[in-house]
Amino acid sequence: MRKISAQSSNRLLLPMGALALIAGVICGLLVVVLMWFSSRDEAVMEPGSVSATGGFWLEYGVFAVYAALIGAGIALFPGLGAYVAVFIQELNNPDASGQREALWAGWGASIGSLLPALVLLVFYLSDPSDHSILYVAAGFVLLCFALTYVLIYMLLGYLQRRDHRTVKNSLQAQIS
Question: Do 155 and 12 meet the contact criterion of CB atoms below 8 Å apart?
């Protein structure tokens, strides 16, 4: 396995923000799809349901747009946490590897995801008998860590390959 070099936090700001927004939109849409599959059978059986009235595409389409926007908004917290962690890691150890930088980004994203998870815990306090909200909050924090680690590691590898190709092409142009 090749060693991936770390990048400066200034260079990672826009790609990390874009990846956070895209991941938030995809996760928001995934939640809508999962909710649709879980409620599909009940909606068909109820006479006044969405599928009975014919407004399925309109109602779920609007819901999907809202979920994508909310997912993008919620993704800003882990994205900002990941960026701050990379920035702090760069100040402490500027010669760190890309894997370590991705690990710091993952930890920062999990810390940043604690704010939306705490909002879910407020809902848990309103109904302490329903433990599924706790599982969703813990899953959200773990998903943020894992997704950020993988995406930042892949981003660092892509940037390193792109830099290598750029240097190689410029050297070949100077030789010719």
Answer: yes
What string of pLDDT tens digits covers the 176 residues of the chain?
568 888 888 888 999 999 999 999 998 888 877 777 766 555 444 555 555 555 666 667 778 888 889 999 999 999 999 999 999 999 988 888 888 999 999 999 999 999 999 988 887 788 788 788 888 889 999 999 999 999 999 999 898 888 888 877 777 777 87
Place of tokens 């290598």: 164
CB-side neighbour CA atoms (13 Å) of 83: 17
Residue 90 tokens, joined: 């760069």
Q: Return all residues near 98 (Cβ < 8 A) that are at least 6 apart.
A: 3, 4, 5, 6, 7, 153, 156, 157, 160
> Does the CA dihedral 1-155-104-139 come out positive or negative?
negative
Phi-psi region of 173 (alpha: psi -120 to 50; beta: other; left: phi over 0): alpha
**Neighbour-count burial for 107-143, b at 16+ CB within 10 Å, e otherwise:** bbbbbbbbebbeeeeeebeeeeeeeebeeebeebbeb
pTM above 0.85, yes or no: no
**Other Cβ atoms closer than 10 A to 25:** 17
Q: Is 123 left (phi over 0), alpha (psi -120 to 50) or beta?
A: alpha
